Amino acid sequence: MGLTERLEQFGRPALMGLTVVAFALCWPVGLGMLVFLIGSKRMGCWNHGHRGQWYGRHAERAERRANERGHGGWRWGEKPGSGNAAFDEYREETLRRLEDEQREFKSFLDKLRFAKDKAEFDQFMADRRNNPPAPPAPPSA
User: Is residue 68 in some structural domain?
Assistant: First the structure.
């Protein structure tokens, strides 16, 4: 039995732990083990969609359950479907309506702030016209 087969018997967690210990004892040996693990694709995450050696039944079962509930296959930023087309349509329409109301309210607030700023500026200009600034004091000699 070769070295590779012996290492595979330990499983991924043991190989990772052995790599950490090897780094702690002698970093060139740890680096060599890391290169070996990556190069031999023992880590499973480099299989790009292909299930690795340590992909278990639990992960398959969890994935199947998520797909059955309608949560599988959606990406970050997308809303998962509920499985009920009428509810999904109602939810989308409600969210669209709320976004429109939010835009209208923001526009209303902007107009309100502009009106307040204009009133304050008009008041400042009126005060300035009624009370011209005092002339500068002559320099004392």
Answer: no
**Which amino acid is present at 138?**
P
In a domain, 6, yes or no: yes
Same domain, 48 and 89: no
Taking the alpha carbons of 115, 119, 124, 129 in that order, is the dihedral positive or negative?
positive
Buried b (16+ CB within 10 A) or exposed e, 99-121: eeeeeeeeeeeeeeeeeeeeeee
Task: Write the pLDDT tens digit of every residue in 84-94.
Answer: 899 999 999 99
- Please tell me the distance from the alpha carbon of residue 107 to that of residue 70, in angstroms, as a whole number: 37
> Is 69 domain-assigned?
no
Domain total in the chain: 2
Phi/psi at 112 (5° precision): -65, -45
| Residue-wise pLDDT tens digits, 21-42 | 988 998 888 888 888 878 776 6
